[in-house]
């Protein structure tokens, strides 16, 4: 396998891991979110599940075994109520956008376009959850954050 293909598979695996984490995180969000935003949380959950399944196929199509989901993920902060669930949803989207920006850099052709679309969707969802945007979604060094990790962490 060429170095470029290895880089693409590595970026696909990172995006898949981020989607696994987002699906888990939205399970937490869904359990805490207020009724007024529950439909939005369900839609995001469904979108991340669909992206996760697509990424797993992309990894398999390249002859690799897709990374598995963890049994659980450490959340970046406690989520006892609706306000913290909204913050978690925005954080999940920021982290997903970060790994998709890496996939955009590593991929070519149709996969690059798909990754760019996923980055855009995550950035838009983050804005909706947060109520404000960042200048460079998916680029932590430009957004003033220090973490581009896919999985929520303690």
Quick tags:
mainly alpha; 154 residues; single chain
Characterization of this structure:
Residues 141-150 have low confidence and may be disordered. The chain is elongated. The chain has 5 helices and no strands. Helix 1 runs antiparallel to helix 3 (82-106) and helix 3 runs antiparallel to helix 4. With 154 residues, it is mostly helical.
Task: Detail the topology: elements first, then pairings.
Elements: H1 3-32, H2 38-61, H3 82-106, H4 109-130, H5 140-143
The biggest beta sheet reads: none
Poorly predicted ranges: 141-150
The geometry reads as: elongated
Number of strands: 0
Provide the gyration radius in Å: 15 Å
Give a brief description:
The protein is mainly alpha-helical and 154 residues long. The protein contains five helices and no strands.
């Amino acid at each position: 396998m060429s170095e470029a293909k290895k880089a693409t598979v590595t970026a696909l695996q990172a995006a898949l891991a981020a989607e696994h984490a987002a699906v888990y995180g939205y399970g937490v969000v869904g359990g805490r979110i207020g009724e007024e935003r529950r439909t939005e949380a369900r839609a995001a959950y469904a979108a991340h599940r669909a992206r996760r399944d697509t990424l797993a196929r992309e990894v398999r199509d390249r002859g690799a075994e897709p990374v598995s989901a963890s049994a659980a993920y450490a959340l970046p902060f406690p989520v006892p109520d609706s306000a913290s669930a909204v913050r978690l949803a925005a954080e999940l989207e920021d982290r997903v956008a970060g790994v998709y920006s890496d996939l955009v850099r590593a991929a070519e052709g149709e996969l690059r376009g798909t990754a760019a679309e996923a980055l855009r969707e995550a950035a838009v969802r983050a804005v909706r959850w947060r109520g404000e945007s960042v200048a460079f979604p998916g680029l932590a060094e430009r957004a003033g954050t220090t973490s581009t990790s896919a999985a929520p962490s303690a």
